[in-house]
Predict the structure.
Amino acid sequence: MSEIANTPKPPYYAVIFSSHRTEGDNGYGEMADRMVELAEQQPGFLGIESVKDELGITVSYWESLEAIKNWKDNAEHREAQRLGHQQWYSNFRVRIAKVEREYGI
């Protein structure tokens, strides 16, 4: 993703996923694209921003904690999580934050 997400007026929630990848693609790129496509179809999804380098950071934005829980529990997303634990990530953290203010140009 190279665009800044166009989010609504706060409050809303951000899920921040920081990760270090293992060597090789091993199907990661295709699954990452599918997860963005699937997330965009989920109720309560507001947008996503992602940068992948030595440290990958993806921030997805959601209307509510319930929408985040439903996304976490999505069967296809759960399979991607399982594969991430097994083969794609050497380290990761998920942080959930409430966005109370935003500004920019």
Observations:
- Strands lie at 12-21, 45-51, 56-62, 89-99.
